[in-house]
Design brief:
Chain A: It comes from Rhodovulum iodosum. Chain A: This is Alpha-D-ribose 1-methylphosphonate 5-triphosphate synthase subunit PhnG. Chain A: InterPro entries: Phosphonate_metab_PhnG (IPR009609). Chain B: Pfam families: PhnI (PF05861). The structure holds two protein chains of two kinds. Chain A is α+β, with helices and mostly antiparallel strands. Chain A has one domain (about 5-135). Chain A is built from four helices and three strands. In chain A, a hairpin with a 6-residue loop joins strand 1 and strand 2. Chain A is elongated and about 85 Å long. The termini of chain A are far apart. By secondary structure, chain B is an alpha+beta fold. Chain B has twelve helices and six strands. In chain B, strands 3-4-5-6 form a four-stranded antiparallel beta sheet. In chain B, strand 4 (about 220-235) and strand 5 (about 240-255) form a beta hairpin. In chain B, helix 3 (about 40-50) crosses helix 5 and helix 4 (about 55-65) packs across helix 5 (about 70-80). The model of chain B has no long low-confidence stretch (mean pLDDT about 95). The chains are: A alpha+beta, B alpha+beta. At the A-B interface, helix 1, strand 1, strand 2, strand 3 and helix 4 of A face helix 3, strand 1, strand 2, strand 3 and helix 7 of B.
């Protein structure tokens, strides 16, 4: 996987992560590194688009709330946070994780924050898929007494 | 005409204080939390997100609490909030084919690959009041089976492969946005779909129903209905690549309609499309029917004069915030307008009475 794909992976994970879980894992990670804001957290809307017939030309469905920010660690790395919802803390945590993932601490961040988040979110998805699977219809044909 | 009137401030303040008290209801009953509304009145939350045109379950739940359960008032609150949000950008079109489905059914193919997955549906319930819900009980638990890993391809793909259904031509045009520019007619399909997805569920349902009953003949099959989560991806200019910025739950409905063919096209099925925020199945199906009905011109069908074929009629009246704003303004003070009407009718009556008196005297 390319460097960009790896970064896309963790940024997407952070965007969708439950804010409380990210906050708790971040709190457990250790003291917050020094940083300065490049863009203070800002809540905004993103217009979500769909396609006609699922595959055709695009149209606008409606907006979703997104919070974004950018910061620079004292060591120079720049982190971006783009997260769903209106939680500025979550955006800050996401940007800090994004920045730290570009430092020598990447492995520690991955093990302490990204891996547990990914695992919990996958478990939640699997649990939901398991309930859906239980509602799958198994057709059977009735024998008709016409012989 | 409005004329500024002073006074009534104390009455207004007191009315709003009373509103707050009534909203809370009997203080002897536990207060509803926003989280309870979000979790336990989820379909109301979904409707408010779809028609409020803003995906944020916590905000929609708060709006429902503030509006005392009046969903159109809640939509109004969300629309007003939405206008205060700076627009960060637009997403890439979501890939509903990759949806993680809670529900996926087809009324056209029994043995569709991926199967018929019912999901948490009201279908096949007996619609008998469940008095057990009136008593507190343990949280129910749904059965689980091995999760499905096989893909759930689009049903219309099968018809498309054989050329039996009209093709959706892929394009990358920037769609018009009715929140940024006033609606213009003729409205293209992208604009119509945006108006319908945020339109009032009751209105869109009524229009769809009218087409089924014969006002613009349109009695389709539900080729596919799916409800589930899709990732939302956006290009981030400062990064130079796209990332996922979140996940939304959507309901998608594709209808398969009859079509007799034309001079240039062999006979084939046509499509109607519905897509809305949240688990909003009635809305998505209705939207698909009305979408199809509004396509009469491009498909070379006759204009039968049916309301659901009239884009101006449908699109100008489907927005419940515009509609209730105009409707409800007539209850606000119109004292001066009415005073002038009153004087006019008195004058006309006086003239008429004088004329009658003259006629009687002659």
């Amino acid at each position: 996987m390319s460097e960009i794909d790896t970064r896309k992976g963790w940024m997407g994970l952070l965007a969708k992560a439950p804010a409380e879980r990210l906050a708790a894992l971040w709190a457990g990670f250790g003291p917050e590194p020094g940083f300065s804001w490049l863009r203070a957290p800002e809540v905004g809307g993103v217009m979500v688009r769909g396609r006609m017939g699922g595959t055709g030309a695009p149209f606008n469905i409606g907006e979703m709330t997104v919070t974004r920010c950018a910061l620079r660690l004292e060591t120079g790395e720049v982190g971006h946070g783009y997260v769903q919802g209106r939680d500025k803390e979550k955006a800050r945590h996401a940007a800090l994780v994004d920045a730290l993932m570009q430092t020598g601490q990447a492995d520690r961040v991955r093990a302490a924050i990204l891996a547990p988040l990914a695992q919990e979110m996958a478990a939640a998805r699997t649990a939901r898929a398991a309930k859906a699977a239980a509602t799958k219809v198994e057709f059977f044909t009735m024998v008709r007494g016409e012989d | 005409m409005y004329v500024a009137v002073k006074g009534g401030e104390r009455a207004i303040d007191n009315a709003h204080d009373w509103l707050a008290e009534e909203r809370r209801g009997d203080p002897g009953i536990a207060e509803l939390s926003v989280a309870q509304i979000r979790e336990q009145l989820a379909l109301a939350v979904n409707r408010v997100m779809a028609e409020g045109s803003l995906y944020d379950p916590d905000l929609a739940a708060l709006a429902i609490k503030q509006a005392r359960g009046d969903l159109i008032e809640a939509v109004f609150l969300i629309r007003a909030y939405r206008t205060t949000l700076p627009r960060i950008g637009a997403s890439r079109p979501v890939d509903t084919g990759a949806m993680v489905c809670d529900r996926r059914i087809s009324a056209t193919f029994k043995d569709a690959p991926g199967g018929q997955v019912l999901g948490p549906t009201f279908d096949y319930t007996h619609r008998l009041l469940d008095f057990k819900l009136a008593a507190e009980g343990e949280a129910p638990e749904a059965p689980a089976s091995a999760p499905q890993t096989a893909p759930m391809p689009r049903i219309t793909e099968y018809l498309d492969r054989d050329g039996l259904i009209q093709r959706e031509e892929p394009a990358e045009d920037t769609p018009p946005d009715l929140t940024r520019a006033p609606m213009e007619f003729p409205a293209n399909r992208a604009l119509r779909l945006q108006a319908l997805t945020r339109g009032d569920e009751g209105f869109v349902l009524g229009m769809a129903y009218s087409t089924q009953r014969g006002y613009g003949r349109n009695h389709p099959f539900v080729g596919e209905l799916r409800i589930g989560a899709v990732s939302v991806e956006m290009d981030i200019p400062e990064l130079g690549f796209a990332i996922e910025i979140g996940e939304v739950r959507l309901t998608e409905c594709e209808t398969v309609n009859q079509f007799t063919g034309s001079k240039t096209e062999p006979p084939q099925f046509t499509r109607g499309y519905g897509l809305a925020f949240g688990q909003t199945e009635r809305k998505a199906i209705s939207m698909a029917l009305v979408d199809r009905s509004l396509r009469w011109e491009e498909l070379g069908e006759d204009d039968t004069g049916a309301p659901a074929q009239d884009a101006e009629f449908v699109l100008y009246h489907c927005d419940n915030i515009q509609a209730s704003g105009f409707l409800e303004h007539i209850k606000l003070p119109h004292y001066v307008d009415f005073q002038s009407e009153l004087e006019l009718i008195r004058k006309i009556r006086a003239e008429a009475e004088a004329a009658m008196a003259r006629a009687a005297a002659e």
